[in-house]
Write a structure and sequence with these properties.
Blueprint (H helix, E strand, L loop, with lengths): L1 H6 L2 E2 L1 E8 L3 H4 L6 E4 L6 E4 L10 E9 L2 H8 L2 H12 L6 H4 E8 L10 E2 L3 H12 L19 H21 L1
Length: about 180
């Protein structure tokens, strides 16, 4: 299991949340939920799918960058610099960013202690050689998560992996 853990690399990703004085995307542009895909390094802007037309401040996903040179570029920066870049790039889509921006937060998965990345990046060869070992129960350790599934980078893979781990643990208990 340890060898299998060591062999699975993790993809880089960054998400940046931005708070604005008002929900200008709704008020000015009639954008109610959804995503704007861009060719900018921020890749996408995600609009909230709840509380449409609410007065006051609003928060949107200012960037979601993953598994690309941009992801490594963003995660190499300090969080405040990631936020600044997201505001600068986002202003190319929504000029209101410059006057409406208030605050932001940025998470770069490779920078989170004990995480090392956002999702498992199996190769076919590594999966063939190590996947069963990663899924095996090793003493008192059973792993679950998207990295221990055939659906990486998705909650569905994590949930299916957890169900599989529970099934394997149950089989082990029944066998004893």
């Amino acid at each position: 299991m340890q060898e299998a853990i060591n062999v699975v690399p993790y993809g880089a990703a960054a998400k940046i949340g931005l708070q604005f004085k008002r929900r200008f995307w709704e008020e000015d542009e009639q954008i109610y939920g959804g995503i704007t895909y861009t060719d900018l390094p921020i890749w996408q802007i995600g609009y909230p799918n709840t509380r449409y037309g609410s007065p006051g401040k609003g928060v949107l996903l200012g960037a979601y960058v993953f598994d690309s040179p941009y992801a490594y570029e963003f995660t190499a920066l300090p969080p405040a610099d990631r936020v600044k870049k997201a505001v600068d790039y986002g202003a190319q889509i929504h000029p209101q960013y410059k006057t409406e921006y208030e605050n932001g937060i940025a998470v770069g998965w490779p920078r989170v202690p004990w995480v090392l990345g956002c999702f498992g990046r199996w190769t076919d060869e590594a999966r063939k050689q190590h996947y069963q070992n990663l899924c095996a129960i090793d003493g008192r350790i059973a792993l679950a998560g998207e990295h221990v599934s055939h659906i990486p980078a998705w909650q569905e893979g994590a949930v299916l992996s957890a169900l599989d781990a529970i099934w394997r643990l149950n089989q082990r208990v029944l066998a004893s």
